[in-house]
Amino acid sequence: MRIHELKRRLREAGAGPSHEQRILRLWSHALPRDSGRRLPGTFFPSSLLQALPAIEAELAGLARIHAIHPGADGSERLLVALADGQTVESVLLPRDGLCVSSQVGCAVGCQFCMTGREGLLRQVGSAEIIAQVALARMRRPVRKVVFMGMGEPAHNLDNVIEAIDLLGTVGNVGHKNLVFSTVGDPRVFERLLHERVRPALALSLHTTRADLRKTLLPRAPAMTPEQLVAAGEHYARATGYPIQYQWTLLEGVNDGPDEIEGIVRLLSGKYGVLNIIPFNAVDGVAFTRPSWERCEQIARTLHQQGILTKLRNSAGQDVDGGCGQLRARAAEVRVVTLRRTGEVQGNKASQSHN
Ligand code: SF4
Question: Helices 257-267 and 292-304, interaxial angle, to 10°?
């Protein structure tokens, strides 16, 4: 179901704008119908009262928790069953964050991602995205929603934008706490700028070499790293939110001096932060994770060259059964800060992606 279809059904049942807002707000916060103070004009007409039980049952059936995998770091991976039996993952992150899935499977086919191996099975509807948030809010508060679960949000743009609009209005999530994560697609940069709720952007860079990017992300839109950063910079300046550049670190693939030089060339002076996420080894994927010492060394070198860099660990790394390792993108932050002496200090800070 999509949110505009839900709105149409509510209107057909006699809902006015204030009724509609109330129903959507309560749904997205996982609150019962009778909660909170009723403002004049928000009492429901009898035709709506009659129709609501069936609509509410349908909303409740959009997504159910199939399994819960708690992580030692305070994260919780939820395996969520959709009404047709398909499953997606949501991850409750430390400090009130939630990572949601926007597709079942994914067509981009990134070489280091298990989700990409399945191909695209189907889109996740905008109402199913909100249903993931509502499920999570039954367990804990959610003040940040990152679109970094299964799927490429740019390939399901209408549904994701509809969900972002609801979350950024009645869903009470601050706009900069909505993070649209993408491999980069010209339509995304163009379209998001014209929306009333403009999310922050996370861009999957992974390499500064156009040829390697084509290999690692075989079905990503044809944008060179330079074009990606230029589009990201434009978006960041227009919105005031720094771009979160994502870099899954693969040993012997994108961790060499050429890439470090490329990052400095591409990102110097840019309004953004580079998130380095060491690859999480999974069966069937022929990449390896660099040592933590090597990751720290790379982060330190980049810092010394003026690139704001954060080294992150994926949330719930100890949890088996994650979707294509949940893209190593819903990350528990281990921020690397540098003192004047050049000493590296790892401290845990809130995740933000991503
Ligand atoms: S990393 Fe993201 S974009 Fe790439 S295949 Fe996996 S889910 Fe799709």
Answer: 40
Give the model confidence (pLDDT) of 140-192 as tens digits. Answer: 999 999 999 999 999 999 999 999 999 999 999 999 999 999 999 999 999 99
Ligand 1 atom at minimal distance to the Cα of residue 115: 6
Prediction pTM value: 0.89
Ligand 1: which atom is nearest the Cα of residue 103?
Answer: 7
Of 89, 100, 103, 108, which is best to mutate to test ligand 1, by the most ligand atoms within 8 angstroms of its C-beta? 108
Query: Does residue 324 line the site of ligand 1, with CB under 6 A?
Result: yes
Q: What is the CA radius of gyration of the chain?
A: 21
| Both structure tokens of 151 | 């799927």
Q: How many CB atoms lie within 10 A of CB 268?
A: 10
**Strand partners of residue 68:** 78
Active-site annotation holds for 323 = yes
Pocket flag, ligand 1, residue 152 (CB < 6 Å): yes
pLDDT exceeding 70 applies to what percent of the chain? 87
Instruction: Return the H-helix or E-strand segment holding 310.
Output: strand 309-314
Q: What is the pLDDT of residues 16-53, one digit of tens each?
A: 999 999 999 999 999 998 887 776 666 899 999 999 99
User: SS3 of 150, please?
Assistant: coil
Mutate which of 99, 103, 113 for ligand 1 pocket (most atoms within 8 A of beta carbon): 113
Annotate 34-103 with DSSP letters as a single string.
T-SPPPTT-SPPHHHHHHHHHHHHHHHTSEEEEEEEE-TTS-EEEEEEETTS-EEEEEEETTTEEE---E
Q: Is 183 in the pocket of ligand 1 (CB under 6 A)?
A: yes
Check whether 332 has a pLDDT greater than 80. Answer: no
The per-residue pLDDT for range 70-99, each reduced to its tens digit, is: 988 888 999 999 999 999 999 999 899 999
Cα separation, 65 vs 85, whole angstroms: 12
Tokens 């993408």 -> residue: 182
